[in-house]
Amino acid sequence: DDPAPAPWPPVTAGGYGAMGSPAAGSLGGMSGSPTAAGVSPAAPMGGKGGYGLPPLLQPVQMTTQQMAGQWGRLPAEKKVQVPSSINSAEMMMTRMKDQLNVFPVQIIGSEGICAGASLQGGGNCFLHGKVVQGGIELIVKAGTPQLAQAVVERATGALR
């Protein structure tokens, strides 16, 4: 049995909680030792790429603590503000799960984090989304800049 996920840090006035500012990479400011047991990707879910496109990612089941420990080791980061009619973290996470084929790790308030792995060998890909007035603030961390960019492009369409 995995230990219970660590509680999500409280959100501060800046909206990014105790994990740091967006300039520090939000979850990217956290450091941690590798998990004792490796995290193996879940089996790909058939055909979930959104909008008829083949999937880029497969879901990776992990805890918030496991994700936080790996977040800073992913070298590529893209941040984007997506104009959206989505008005809840639950709706955002459902859309990311269904359209981007990622595992919904945790929701707290207006924020959510998801985990996936590249089907083309680009390593893990983590998403941190925050529902704000008129849109979604999205941070994508990935093993390669190409994967981060491709996921941002897919997410921009999926979250509108």
Structural features, described:
The protein has helices at 64-71, 89-100, 145-158; strands at residues 57-59, 76-83, 103-108, 111-118, 124-132, 135-142. Helix 2 (89-100) crosses helix 3. The radius of gyration is 14 Å and the shape is globular. The chain has 160 residues and is an alpha+beta fold. The model is unreliable at 1-48 (pLDDT under 50). Helix content is 21%, strand content 26%. Strand 5 and strand 6 form a beta hairpin.
Largest sheet: 6 strands, antiparallel
Shape: globular
Q: Structural class given helices, strands, pairing?
A: alpha+beta
Query: C-alpha Rg, in Å?
Result: 14 Å
Ends apart, CA distance between termini: 37 Å
Order of helices and strands: EHEHEEEEH
Descriptive terms for the model:
160 residues, alpha+beta, 6-stranded antiparallel β-sheet, 3 helices, globular, disordered N terminus
Short description:
With 160 residues, the protein is an alpha+beta fold. The chain has three helices and six strands.
Q: What's the SSE blueprint?
A:
Elements: E1 57-59, H1 64-71, E2 76-83, H2 89-100, E3 103-108, E4 111-118, E5 124-132, E6 135-142, H3 145-158
Helix pairs in contact: 2-3
